[in-house]
Structure formats: C-alpha cells, structure tokens
Amino acid sequence: MSDTTLIGLGAMGTALAAAWLAAGHRPTVWNRTRARAENLGAPVADTPADAVAASRLVVVCLLDDAGVGAVLDGVDLAGKDLVNLTTCTPAEARARAAWAGARGARYLDGGIMADPPMIGTPDASVFYSGSAEAFTTWEHVLAVPAATRYVGEDPGHAALHDIALLSAMYGMFAGIAHAFALIRAEPIAPTSLAPLLADWLSTMAGSAHLTAAQLETGDYRAGVSSTLAMQVAGIPTFLRTAREQAVRPDLLTPYFTLMHRLAADGRGDEDTTGVVDLLR
Ligand code: FVH
C-alpha cells in the first residue's frame, strides 16, 4: 500500500506530487487527463476508485468542489482519511465533511497559501481544519510540500482563513493598481515606485493587529493615531489627485463611502474599524 494517494494533477497537484516524490514518498496518483500523470515517476491508478484503494491518506486537489463530488461519486471511502485541498467556501467544506463522514472517512479541509512554484519552499503554508485525529496522524506527510497550520475542528475554518487572507490580498492588489495608475502618465518608473510601495504596505500591514484588538474590546478609539475625521477630510484630496492624473477612483470609492457613513454617524473620533461592522 502506498502512503499517499493524490487525485488531481493540475498545476498545484503536480507541484504537490513533485514535493512528495523529492522527499522520497511514493504517492499513487490519478488525474482525469491521464497524460498529465504519466511522466511524474509515480504509480498511476486507472480509476479514482483504484487510487483511493491504494492508500489510507487520500489527498484531493481539483479545480472546484463540484469536481470533487464528480470524481469521488460512488467511490468507497470507508476507513480513509480524505484531505481536500480544493479551494471551496466554508459551507462547501462543511457539506463535504458531512458527505465524507457519511461514507466512513475522516475529513480534513485545506486552504493552500501558495502558488505552485512556492510548494516545497519555506514560504508555502496550508491551513487545515476538520478531524484533529486525521491531522495528527498525517501531519508529517502533509508538512512535506508546505508548512501546516491547523485552525480547529470546524471543517469550514480552513476555507474561511484561506478566503479571508486572499480577500485582503485582493484589496492590496487594488491599492497597488491605483498607485501605479496615478504615476502612469508621469516620468516615474514603475520599478522606482515598487520598492517604496512594498515597504509602505509592509509597514501598514501591521495595522491589522490594532484593528483586531479594537474589534475584541469594542473600543474603536483605543490606540487611534489618525482619526476617522482626519482621514475623511483627506478624501477630496485623493479624489482630486485621481482626477488630475486622469485615473478612475473606482477601486477606492467603495471604502471612502463607508468611511463617510461612519463619520456621518458621529464616529469621527474613532479609527476606521467601524467599517468592519458596516460590511455585515
Ligand atoms: N494554482 C494556484 O496558484 C492556486 C494556489 C492556491 C490554491 N489553488 C487551488 O488549488 C486547486 C487546484 O488548482 P490548480 O492550479 O491545480 O488548477 P488547474 O491547473 O486548473 O487544475 C485543475 C485540476 O482539476 C481537474 N478537474 C477539474 N474539473 C474536473 C472534473 N470535473 N473532474 C475531474 N477532474 C477535474 C483537472 O483535471 P484535467 O483538466 O487535468 O483533466 C486538473 O487536474 C483549485 O481549487 C485552486 O483554487 C491553486
């Protein structure tokens, strides 16, 4: 019996397989398009059922949750530990855990915080949640391609951490796009702005800690150094600058609108943390 089965050899699954093979594991693999499995140097199963039968630990990394259901439909999962690294929503992960449990499998959901080239490097990590027993049993195998971060028994919490962090990343991407758009028509090289931007964003990322503390205490005035009122007063300058540079402010205005709403509610002496509550 192989120690691991890996179902799904897209860009991510192939990177996972390569990391396990490089570390001396011998995962049994299956992929819908068989050609992607053939030159890996791993045993290739003919069917998903054969792949699942080959190992107690079954790792799935497919495009989406519907694919997981389609591939594992009718496959005997009794006694297996199913680790699903397919990106999904928290509700999909909980439903998939119940689905696996009803078929006699322990379930772990995983949210991958890496792109394929990062797999096998110290920068890669994966959030896991679900069966603590399954995590303890297989952590030594799961830790080969990426550092493991177990975030609890709720199978939806790995996906929730994954999507929360990626959502913050997209907010950052939006800010970066706006910043580059502002300088685009000027004789300022993007490569000269980039290190300034990266340093500034790294410094400001620490503000997440103050926001978290304020959310936990409910005191949105604690530790405020730049009040909402001061920041709202500056919004017209951001909008005029965008207009002067012929840049659409579309990526910033949703956040500015929420800041205005808080200020209109008389919360100008607070931080911007109240935006979190307005979003709910
Ligand atoms: N690549 C990335 O940067 C991100 C990083 C964070 C995590 N994601 C998630 O990982 C899952 C897999 O992503 P991927 O990069 O491997 O995706 P693809 O290269 O497009 O490969 C998709 C695999 O899924 C197979 N597949 C899709 N639909 C079905 C289906 N209905 N039945 C069976 N297999 C299916 C596909 O098979 P094939 O096209 O080769 O036959 C690939 O193996 C994903 O959740 C990301 O969000 C990656």
TrEMBL record:
<dbReference type="InterPro" id="IPR015815">
    <property type="entry name" value="HIBADH-related"/>
</dbReference>
<dbReference type="Pfam" id="PF03446">
    <property type="entry name" value="NAD_binding_2"/>
</dbReference>
<keyword id="KW-0560">Oxidoreductase</keyword>
<dbReference type="InterPro" id="IPR006115">
    <property type="entry name" value="6PGDH_NADP-bd"/>
</dbReference>
<dbReference type="InterPro" id="IPR048666">
    <property type="entry name" value="RedAm-like_C"/>
</dbReference>
<protein>
    <submittedName>
        <fullName>NAD(P)-dependent oxidoreductase</fullName>
        <ecNumber>1.1.-.-</ecNumber>
    </submittedName>
</protein>
<dbReference type="InterPro" id="IPR051265">
    <property type="entry name" value="HIBADH-related_NP60_sf"/>
</dbReference>
<comment type="similarity">
    <text>Belongs to the HIBADH-related family.</text>
</comment>
<feature type="domain" description="NADPH-dependent reductive aminase-like C-terminal">
    <location>
        <begin position="154"/>
        <end position="280"/>
    </location>
</feature>
<dbReference type="InterPro" id="IPR036291">
    <property type="entry name" value="NAD(P)-bd_dom_sf"/>
</dbReference>
<dbReference type="GO" id="GO:0016491">
    <property type="term" value="F:oxidoreductase activity"/>
</dbReference>
<dbReference type="Pfam" id="PF21761">
    <property type="entry name" value="RedAm-like_C"/>
</dbReference>
<dbReference type="InterPro" id="IPR013328">
    <property type="entry name" value="6PGD_dom2"/>
</dbReference>
<feature type="domain" description="6-phosphogluconate dehydrogenase NADP-binding">
    <location>
        <begin position="5"/>
        <end position="148"/>
    </location>
</feature>
